[in-house]
Amino acid sequence: MKLKPIDEWMEEKNTAYYKSPSTKIYDDFSTYAQSEKGMLARANAQAFCKWASENKKNKYNILETGVGNGAFAYAFLDEIRKIDGKSKEKILNKINYTLADFSAPMLEKAKLQNAAFKKFCNINAVLFDASLSDALKSGEISEDTKKLGTYDYIRCNELFSDLPAKLYANIDGEISQVLMDDKMQAELEPLSSSLDDIEAKMILSLPENYFIPINRIAVNSCAFFSSLLNENACMDVFDYGFYFNSDFVIPPDMWNMSIVREYGGQWTIDLNFIYLSLTLSSLGKNIKIERQKDYVQNVIGKKLSISDDSGLDYEETDGEFEEDDSFYHMQIKN
Asked: Does domain 27-164+213-242+267-333 have CATH number 3.10.20.30?
């Protein structure tokens, strides 16, 4: 049984998965981005249009990173097109939309998916690996990075839970690292890599015996992308993970079995929004985190329940529903 840190498995498996021309991501898993009703994309587009109406510009530069097959971009732009049809003030033709992904096959699919919008706005594509943020942090600028500009809005959906992360556990007040084999069978070993104060204190403050991801690459990537924001701009992150104490209600053994998941050969790990919030705030970033359903409800001004009809989606309801999933919205403001 070959045991390795989870980040090494993720780098190996996810690179092969996303760079394969035969990968069909939404045949392997569902996301709110490509759901039939598109409640998330609709709310996201409505929020952007409201911001644009309050911040009038001749051009709006938008970056979507980790675009996959381009479904989230399509739904967002299509909702803006519909909003334009009911408004005197047109926004779509002022948009420069940049699609960014580290997978050339995925980027080609995204360009094809959104080709119809080229008659309304500018659509650009850039090959970019969000996991290279450590190199970016140290000042190493690639040719692809030079193609990125500054942006009035940055958006991404279920990107950062795909980036390699390490996994730890608080066992009797001592931190251990979690290793896995290629079947996701876990073993603990004494801590071999160093943790900074924020990481160590956070792990020890959380319930014992739970596997806790440290998404360092995701933090560095968020910090890098947010550095590209223009004045009064923001970045929206939609992803799967945990943040509130109520997320720890399930028993540790059930939590530990599901913290890392495999879909069609791809490995994904929960995004630790507690860690992101603490670390990005320490870097001076203005952070807001809420449940994704609350974000959608607040934008559209209606109560929602979680729909089971067509994959991951929300539906309007007149009732009072308290159920929640584990999808979060994090906003980083400049």
From this structure: no
